[in-house]
Design brief:
TPR repeats lie at residues 31-64. This protein is mainly alpha-helical and 70 residues long. The protein has helices at residues 4-23, 30-43, 47-65.
Length: 70
């Protein structure tokens, strides 16, 4: 049975693909979507998969803004 989380995840991943095609894989705006996907995966208790998205977003932000940026 498909839940609202499954539906949200589908839309977030689709949105991420579009953002990556237009802005590039390492654009800071992409990190918002990565975080959203991580949150949905966390709600679904898919911790390890969520961490992949969270860590990617963190790497992008650190490379753009530096590790000391709030």
């Amino acid at each position: 049975m498909k839940t609202k989380y499954d539906e949200a995840l589908q839309y977030y991943k689709r949105s991420l693909k579009i953002q990556e095609e237009i802005l590039g894989f390492d654009h800071p705006i992409v990190t918002n979507n990565l975080n959203d996907i991580g949150q949905v995966l966390s709600k679904k208790r898919k911790w390890e998969e969520a961490m992949v998205y969270y860590k990617r977003g963190l790497r992008i932000n650190e490379s753009v803004f530096g590790s000391e940026h709030p």
